[in-house]
Design goal:
The protein has about 350 residues and is an alpha/beta fold. About 30% of the residues lie in helices and about 20% in strands. The protein has eleven helices and 16 strands. Helix 4 packs across helix 10 and helix 10 packs across helix 11. The protein is globular, with a radius of gyration of 21 Å.
Length: about 350
């Protein structure tokens, strides 16, 4: 086994979580690798079969609602050796409990503070990665005060014809300090892209969002006050990060999902498009599981260094003779889309995006 002490001490930027179980660690450390003689996952056991070679893939935001699905798929697939990157120790424990992965498959890093200068300052668990799937995103928290105000309006709203008891547009959201869209979706993603290059990663899959061409999209208002001030514009910052990836020299696959829902995957037809044309559809949602499947498809099907950026939604399955038509796999849908030669046009969008 390699000596991982160097990975913890490089410039104070890294620490090993296994050490924290016995002794205090520097609070300023930006990274920590989970390393100990724990159980090994099924994927690692498969990986060690004679003659079998797995592709190492780093999944960032691996404890999130979409990132954990991507990590689970890769961790269970013998074609891949997955390493999850999460923001905190509590997120690491959450991922391990959810996926039953091994400790050495998880690395802790706050991507907004990521540092990788010096002589190998990152855990050896990240060495040899061929691809990275970026699933990090700023996550807004609902304002408790706005909930209270909305509840006080319920009696009057009930007595008013054609008015809902709760107007969900009255609810306000804000981001945690330091976890604003600019920091997470732009600065943090730029750091991850730079880190991918430092590691020698060849292919980056970035999960972004549909609607990035509309600066007035309601998602951009989250985090702002009534005067438009505050930390918002999440789609604008995502678009800037996408452009940074496009100019990085790395092979990339950028996925723009519609509204993410927690339904079962592979129950709807996947529809892929470009440049927010799918925003005109009445139904613009997609299962997080289907997005995770598309991430895996991108890793498998994007041969020859092909770069592509696309939107995706789900649509109801058609019926023939009273029976539903078979749903195409994410692999098949992605291959068909690649054959069209389409990709997003990054000259579109308001100035400054």
């Amino acid at each position: 086994m390699k000596d991982r002490t160097a990975a913890a001490s490089g410039g104070g930027a890294f620490r090993l979580l296994a050490w924290s179980l016995a002794a205090p660690l520097p609070s300023a450390a930006a990274f920590c690798g989970l390393q100990c003689g724990a159980r090994r996952s099924a994927s690692q056991l498969h990986m060690n079969l004679p003659g079998q070679v797995s592709k190492k893939v780093i999944v960032t935001g691996a404890a999130g609602r979409t990132g954990s699905l991507v990590f689970s798929l890769l961790d269970e697939d013998p074609r891949f050796d997955a390493v999850g990157l999460v923001r905190s120790e509590s997120s690491a424990k959450k991922l391990i409990a959810k996926t039953n992965c091994a400790l050495e498959e998880v690395v802790i890093s706050d991507v907004t503070e990521m540092q990788f200068d010096g002589d190998h300052p990152w855990p050896y668990a990240l060495d040899g990665a061929e691809a990275m799937v970026i699933c990090t995103s700023a996550v807004p928290q609902i304002s408790k005060m706005s909930i209270m105000k909305a509840m006080l309006k319920i009696p009057m709203n009930i007595l008013t014809p054609h008015k809902k008891a709760i107007n969900f547009r009255d609810l306000q959201f804000k981001y945690r300090p330091g976890q604003y869209p600019e920091m997470v979706d732009y600065v943090g993603q730029k750091k991850q892209i730079d880190f991918a290059k430092k590691l020698g990663v060849k292919h980056v899959v970035l999960v972004s969002s549909m609607g990035v061409l509309d600066e007035n999209n309601f998602l951009n208002q989250i985090g702002k006050d009534k005067n438009g001030e505050g930390h918002g514009d999440i789609l604008i910052w995502k678009r800037k990060a996408e452009k940074y990836l496009c100019l990085s020299g790395l092979q990339y696959t950028i996925i723009h999902p519609g509204g993410l829902v927690d339904s079962e995957p592979s129950q709807m037809n996947l529809v892929l498009g470009v440049d927010d044309k799918l925003m005109k559809r009445e139904k613009k949602s997609i299962s997080r599981g289907d997005v995770a499947n598309l991430c895996v498809s991108a890793l498998v099907e994007s041969g020859g260094g092909r770069c592509v950026s696309f939107d995706c939604v789900g649509e109801a399955v058609a019926e023939e003779g009273g029976e539903k038509v078979a749903v195409k796999s994410a692999d098949e849908v992605f291959r068909e889309f690649l054959s069209t030669g389409k990709t997003a046009d990054y000259t579109l969008g308001p100035k400054g995006m």
